Amino acid sequence: MLLKLRPEPGAEKNKYMIPFVDLRANYANLKGALEGAISDVCDSASLILGAPVEQFENRFASYVGSKFAVGMGTGTDALFLACRALEIGPGDEVLVPANTFIASALAVNMVGAIPVPVDIDADSSLMDIAAAGRSVSKRTKAIMPVHLYGQVMDMDVVSDFATAHGLKIIEDAAQAHGAKFKGRSAGAIGDIGCFSFYPSKNLGALGDGGLAVTSDEALAEKLRLLRNYGSTKKYFHELAGTNSRLDAIQAAVLNVKLDHLDGWNRARFAAASRYCEGLEGVGSVTVPKFERSDIERHIFHLFVILAKDRDGLSEHLNGRQIQSGVHYPIPFHLQQAFEHIGFGPSSCPVAESQASQILSLPMFPEISNRQIDNVVRAISEYYG
After folding, report:
1. CA-wise closest residue to 152 among 181, 191, 128, 193
2. CATH fold for the domain made of 28-258
3. What are the residue ranges spanned by the domains of the chain?
4. Minimal CA–CA distance to 190: which of 229, 221, 162?
5. CB 114 within 8 A of CB 141
6. What's the CATH class of domain 261-382?
7. Contact 370, 376 (CB under 8 A)
8. Helix or strand run (H / E) with residue 31
């Protein structure tokens, strides 16, 4: 079977010599294996759940060191159903870092609870636990550490905090596939860990996909019910669930790609190290802080710098045919969608300050040293 990747109707041809992420290169390297796996699913005509999904769930659970994995339609659904499985609902609050993709907060909002924005640590851009302590109330039911950009939070600190305040832990590991803290995998440390398989993730499908992991059998069973109309037997429904099942074709794709994840993560780490070495003398740029001897704590889904005159630098890179991104330009509590939670400007000063400086540089496993050096040269050129 021949699988062709076509641009969306009306999409212009990629004008960048150095793209932000190169999905075509990734696909080309695995084309035969991916097409074979997809063909096998089509030949089997088992397209909903079934063997490919079960195989991937078992393999991924083993990979992260969790007892159970439940595949879902998207990473957002994984977070949403994690909240439901933990019985978070109206009147409850969940602590969420202000600097995160909107899905983290949306999942809490979807169950009727309030996502309470927590400021971030200036060095890591991860949730500041001291700030979390100032945000706890009697209504707080859970904390959602987001392993942003591919770096794992200090989960010892998070676990101690959650225990002290009687909170559940929902790990948002959507950007941290394969990252580890003291030998324990991101997502497998809290009560439930949630992953996204959006195509550009370190482990990405050829479309949407998500998954939740847990070592609590009762929670795993509840997640399975919730993703499949609240049903284990057709037309008999124990819970008011939804339809969010990992597609069998996407599971087959992920089964192929899982074998390559560790190698891809090592390549990202090497690319990040080269970026840091090249940008060391550029005074207007702050590079990520990470332990160069710990190749597992940060697996660089994104390589994010803080840059003076960020927008000017971005335009300069664009002029040099170098694509960049901003993750994320507006903290979630300042988005119009969350005006109702009542956290205005200055609620999270560090996150709000960094929002005008953060810039994500091209990062993907296939990026070459020459491409990295060209990006570094363009940045150095801009700042003179």
Report:
1. 181
2. Aspartate Aminotransferase; domain 2 (3.40.640)
3. 28-258, 261-382
4. 162
5. no
6. alpha beta
7. no
8. helix 23-44
Tokens of 254: 């992920």
Structure-token match 């540089």, residue found:
361
Low-confidence ranges of the chain (pLDDT < 70): 1-14
Beta carbons of 180 and 151 less than 8 angstroms apart? no
Residue 11 confidence (pLDDT): 37
Cβ atoms of residues 95 and 136 within 8 Å: yes
Phi, psi of 74 (to 5 degrees): -150, 165
Question: What's the Rg (C-alpha) of the chain?
Answer: 21
Inter-residue contact 199 to 205 (CB < 8 Å): yes
Rounded to the nearest 5 percent, the helix, strand and coil shares of the chain are 40, 15, 45
Looking at residue 232, what is its pLDDT?
86
The reported pLDDT for the residue numbered 2 is 32
Strands 114-118 and 93-97: parallel
φ/ψ (deg, to 5) at 312: -65, -40
Tokens of residue 2, six digits: 């021949």
Q: State both tokens at 15.
A: 């004008």
Tokens 């969306």 correspond to what residue?
Answer: 8
Among 178, 73, 111, 108, which residue's Cα sits nearest to residue 332? 108
Question: In 3D, which of 271, 308, 301, 293 has the Cα closest to residue 382?
Answer: 308
- Give the pLDDT of residue 14: 59
